[in-house]
Specification:
Elements lengths: L3 E8 L2 H11 L6 E5 L4 E3 L3 E6 L3 H13 L3 E9 L2 E7 L5 E6 L14 E8 L2 H10 L4 E5 L3 E4 L5 E6 H8 L5 E3 L3 E5 L4 E2 L5 E3 L4
Parallel strand pairs: 1-2, 4-7, 8-11, 13-15
Antiparallel strand pairs: 1-13, 3-12, 4-8, 5-6, 6-7, 9-10, 10-11, 14-15
């Protein structure tokens, strides 16, 4: 089974970004940052998604994120699938926070049920085939629209870039670096959409 152990977000101010992910979002060592000279404009083609127990936890993360310097690009609202909102983190990463529950469950503030890296791809089917060929186990698949994989501490999902941007409430346009490295046991490789993987410890 392919395992993702960490996401490395490349940014201009790693120290500030690290504080945001560890203190405001409580993600510990699952997300780390590093300095980069790679440039990007607009949407970078991926979202970091927190799946949480209920709307109260969503609201807590949205408030903590904005207090720590993020911008709410999509305020938390009810939708067909539950309740959620989108933050633009200080380093430019799009962070979504969502729950399938529309009512309080009594969950503790700051609870994250699942951390998901969602990649916006040119076409889901060939990208899915690439990961399956690498030995990555499919968890869910909906034709050419969506696929997700069982990848351990950080789940991986594929959507068309335009669909991912629409769901997050951001414009799909963007160019340059993804400013992201996926750390896991696939080692050193780049997928069909330009997302880079690195081995742990590099």
């Amino acid at each position: 089974m392919t395992t993702i152990t960490q996401l490395l977000l490349e940014c201009d101010d790693p120290e500030t970004a690290d504080r945001f992910y560890s203190e405001a979002l409580g993600l510990g060592d699952r997300i780390r940052t590093r300095a980069t000279e790679r440039s990007s404009t607009g949407f970078r083609g991926a979202t970091v998604s927190l799946v949480v127990p209920d709307p109260g936890v969503v609201d807590g993360f949205m408030a903590a994120g904005t207090a720590a310097g993020a911008r709410a690009v999509k305020p938390a609202t009810r939708n067909l699938f539950g309740y959620g909102g989108t933050l633009l983190a200080p380093d430019g990463t799009v962070v979504t926070v969502a729950t399938s529950s529309k009512k309080p469950t009594g969950a503790a503030p700051g609870t994250v049920d699942e951390l998901v890296l969602q990649l916006g791809v040119a076409a889901v089917a060939p990208s899915k085939e690439f990961y399956v060929a690498c030995g990555t186990e499919v968890a869910q698949s909906y034709g050419r629209k969506y696929a997700s994989f069982a990848t351990g501490p950080i789940s991986l999902a594929l959507l068309k870039r335009s669909s991912l941007a629409k769901a997050a409430g951001v414009a799909a346009e963007g160019s340059g670096s993804h400013r992201l490295a996926i750390v896991g046991d696939l080692g050193e490789l780049t997928d069909p959409d330009g997302f880079r993987w690195e081995a742990p410890g590099l």
